[in-house]
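Hey, can you fold this one?
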Amino acid sequence: MSAKRVDPSNLEAEEALLARFWAKVDQRGTEDCWPWTGSCDAKGYGSFWNRGGTTRAHRLCWDITNGPAGSRHVLHRCDNPRCCNPRHLWLGSNQDNVDDKMSKGRHGWRLDSRPILRGEANPRAKLTRAAVAQIREMYELGGPSQRALARRFGVSQRCILFVLRGETWK
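Sure. Predicted structure:
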């Protein structure tokens, strides 16, 4: 949903929408985050019901204060998904969103905010750091093929390929 600037023919409905929205934003100070106090989605972003659908609160905040964002992403400088302080928001492309997420270290989290367990910490891991080091050393010395290494360590050939390329077990 993208909010419009105040429509004079529907001024009362627009004012009600704005009042309902801002009533769920805790505006403690001009520089602090203004947390959304209403319901949130699975990723922790504020969720606002409006005109038969939901929209993220920070996106609606942008639309209300700056005009429609269109297809662009509304990003947080503060990295707080509940924040609705317009001074903490900025527009960016999909690539800007990905770069922002990567730079802030948010790329390794699940929807429910639990960290993704990597390496030996993952209970489903079949390899250990020692095994990965051994695989790489054996292969570099011209040892067994990827297929033979996969059989020896009880994993797929594709798993061995990703280990050797450094795509996993970095």
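The chain has two domains: 8-103, 119-165. Let me know if you want another pass with a different chain boundary.
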